[in-house]
């Protein structure tokens, strides 16, 4: 080394320069800058091998981890999640939805917040379930104080999680809403409309979004629900709010136009029908069209009857209407049944199985298999032309 230094000094004194020093200062700066910026942490590969993401997911998520220089912090996060009892698939879902979670500080952020969840009385299994759908909230806010507010409103931790778990980020979106400036004013307004948090939770995630919308937006939703012909305090008002919160005015108008044409009814009659079951507007236009066509052309119902029994349009065509019609047709063809289609459709699944499947298992033993096949989308041979 000393000999090399002596050689370099000699060259410099004599006006010469070794090959490396013939490059410009700018070139040297670029060279060392590039070397310094090269990360030894291959984020994309790490996301695949350590976190279980697909290559496509990892490519997208790795952009959020480009600043990391080693896997040490991410390893600690993965170990923490595993220690909570989360499965590898749960962890993969969390990381895919929120790659920045891998950058969290376990000792200063995650562990203390989980400790507060234990102080709330949540079990290990409940904490794991919460983190699997509320990881973003755990990373970004004091979740324990917010759960302390939400759980009593929903009635239990399980009911809250059920309503909040629309996708991995669903719980985070609800928990991150400001309680004092957003949630409490909304709850007060909803109470004046005759609704509670529990009422809206029954309508699914759309109803939950109503609760956490801005107060200004909630006022708009209420006005739009009333525009559908649904009055505040009515049993259907919560469903009307959930419907308008998930659909634009243009989309609602388009679906009502489709139904008006398919059923051949007036605007007033259609609005009366929608007011009875506003949730039918949440179905896609293709589903609405197919369902009405099935009820008229295959079942043989009159459009006027369907308008009076709007609930029929709200049932799943392939999951309920068609399979039960298949059973009804078989029993009628054998002279065993005089029940109306609507009564069979409105029956609960348990009662339907008991009354129309099990009751006839001696005379029509294949009926259970036919019903199962119809629900699976297969056409029973009994109904094939």
Automatic annotation (TrEMBL):
<dbReference type="GO" id="GO:0003676">
    <property type="term" value="F:nucleic acid binding"/>
</dbReference>
<keyword id="KW-0804">Transcription</keyword>
<keyword id="KW-0805">Transcription regulation</keyword>
<comment type="similarity">
    <text>Belongs to the mTERF family.</text>
</comment>
<protein>
    <submittedName>
        <fullName>Uncharacterized protein</fullName>
    </submittedName>
</protein>
<dbReference type="InterPro" id="IPR003690">
    <property type="entry name" value="MTERF"/>
</dbReference>
<dbReference type="GO" id="GO:0006353">
    <property type="term" value="P:DNA-templated transcription termination"/>
</dbReference>
<keyword id="KW-0809">Transit peptide</keyword>
<keyword id="KW-0806">Transcription termination</keyword>
<dbReference type="InterPro" id="IPR038538">
    <property type="entry name" value="MTERF_sf"/>
</dbReference>
<dbReference type="Pfam" id="PF02536">
    <property type="entry name" value="mTERF"/>
</dbReference>
């Amino acid at each position: 080394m000393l000999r090399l230094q002596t050689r370099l000094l000699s060259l410099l004194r004599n006006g010469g320069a070794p090959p490396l020093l013939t490059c410009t200062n700018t070139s040297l700066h670029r060279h060392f800058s590039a070397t310094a910026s090269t990360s030894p942490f291959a984020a994309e590969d790490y996301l695949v091998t350590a976190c279980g993401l697909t290559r496509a997911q990892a490519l997208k998520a790795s952009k959020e981890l480009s600043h990391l220089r080693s896997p040490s912090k991410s390893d600690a996060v993965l170990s923490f999640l595993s220690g909570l009892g989360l499965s590898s698939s749960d962890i993969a879902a969390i990381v895919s939805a929120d790659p920045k979670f891998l950058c969290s500080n376990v000792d200063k952020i995650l562990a203390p917040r989980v400790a507060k969840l234990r102080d709330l009385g949540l079990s290990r299994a409940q904490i794991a379930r919460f983190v699997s759908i509320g990881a973003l909230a755990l990373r970004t806010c004091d979740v324990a104080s917010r759960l302390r507010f939400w759980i009593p409103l929903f009635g239990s931790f399980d009911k809250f999680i059920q309503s909040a778990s629309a996708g991995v980020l669903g719980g985070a979106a609800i928990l991150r809403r400001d309680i004092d400036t957003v949630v409490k004013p909304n709850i007060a307004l909803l109470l004046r409309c005759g609704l509670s948090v529990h009422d809206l939770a029954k309508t699914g995630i759309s109803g939950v979004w109503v609760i956490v919308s801005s107060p200004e937006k909630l006022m708009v939703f209420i006005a739009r629900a009333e525009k559908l012909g649904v009055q505040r305090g009515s049993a259907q008002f919560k469903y009307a709010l959930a419907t308008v919160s998930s659909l634009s005015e243009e989309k609602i108008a388009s679906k009502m136009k489709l139904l008006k044409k398919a059923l051949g009814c007036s605007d007033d009659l259609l609005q009366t029908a929608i007011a009875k079951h506003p949730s039918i507007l949440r179905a896609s236009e293709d589903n609405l069209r197919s369902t009405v066509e099935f009820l008229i052309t295959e079942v043989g119902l009159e459009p006027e009857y369907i308008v009076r029994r709007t609930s029929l349009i709200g049932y799943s065509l392939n999951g309920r209407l068609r399979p039960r019609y298949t059973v009804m047709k078989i029993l009628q063809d054998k002279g065993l049944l005089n029940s109306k289609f609507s009564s069979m459709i409105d029956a609960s699944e348990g009662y339907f199985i008991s009354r129309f499947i099990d009751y006839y298992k001696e005379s029509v033993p294949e009926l259970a298999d036919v019903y199962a096949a119809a629900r699976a989308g297969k056409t029973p041979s009994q109904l094939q032309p």
